Known about the structure:
The protein is of the alpha+beta class. The chain has 2 domains: about 5-45, no CATH class; about 60-305, Sandwich (Jelly Rolls), CATH 2.60.120. It has 7 helices and 18 strands. The strands form 4 sheets. It has a 9-stranded antiparallel sheet with strand order 1-2-12-9-16-7-4-3-18. The structure holds 2-oxoglutaric acid (AKG). 2-oxoglutaric acid binds near residues 162, 185, 194 and 228. One of its GO terms (molecular function) is dioxygenase activity. Belongs to the alkB family. This is Alpha-ketoglutarate-dependent dioxygenase alkB. InterPro entries: AlkB-like, AlkB-like_sf, ALKBH6.
Amino acid sequence: xxxxxxxxxxxxxxxxxxxxxxxxxxxxxxxxxxxxxxxxxxxxxxxxxxxxxxxxxxxxxxxxxxxxxxxxxxxxxxxxxxxxxxxxxxxxxxxxxxxxxxxxxxxxxxxxxxxxxxxxxxxxxxxxxxxxxxxxxxxxxxxxxxxxxxxxxxxxxxxxxxxxxxxxxxxxxxxxxxxxxxxxxxxxxxxxxxxxxxxxxxxxxxxxxxxxxxxxxxxxxxxxxxxxxxxxxxxxxxxxxxxxxxxxxxxxxxxxxxxxxxxxxxxxxxxxxxxxxxxxxxxxxxxxxxxxxxxxxxxxxxxxxx
Length: 306
Ligand SMILES: O=C(O)CCC(=O)C(=O)O
């Protein structure tokens, strides 16, 4: 027989009291039990996502080095079928808080894994498709620590899902020190040329043509010393700065598709414990608004996926 709301909440409260062993009676008064219960319910309702990815073999990152400034590029990191299944999952309607689209002036994004903040990242549960992707990355054994100045391979816990339409790009920016100095970009649906510059307005020092299904990894100087950005344009023109020309030649034009989707995968080393109190809710809102104002374009509105 299904439990009614009240008894479920009581059960949960009892379980919580037993588990925490009443750490602090003063703090207990401000615990938001309904928020905890909501979170537990959502977790138990996790929809099964069929496997998106096939078995990926281990790779040696040094085989994919494009440039000594810390740039690696893996073409066809995922297959067409994997790309399509991943996009299908990305666009599945969701009502979860952590799965909200935020509309900025030049792109829409979903902030997955947590809200980065100088005090530490407030983590939240990740969608199943991201967990599967992280597993693929882990199986690929990309030994980032061997190629840059970090002690351990990052545990990737912060993912930005970006959607650009009509040839929009992203302003020149650095990802900054909230993260370990390594960023991975999984590029989908359209090619785009990502450019690296010493300052946001100086000439481009080097650029990478990101093809759909490819994974760009940048670390070291490319992460720390260069700004990266993508121009607003319906097409990209290859010039001498391009470090992965392969069969292309200077002057070649590559058309972008109407929509491009990317996943920027990073690691926040400092993660804050999630608590369930009114105070924490306010802190979360404060951190979120700090984060929104810190990203390159101004947030215009926040929308929930229909
Ligand atoms: O969408 C892209 O490929 C670039 C994303 C990016 O630069 C970022 O998320 O910081």
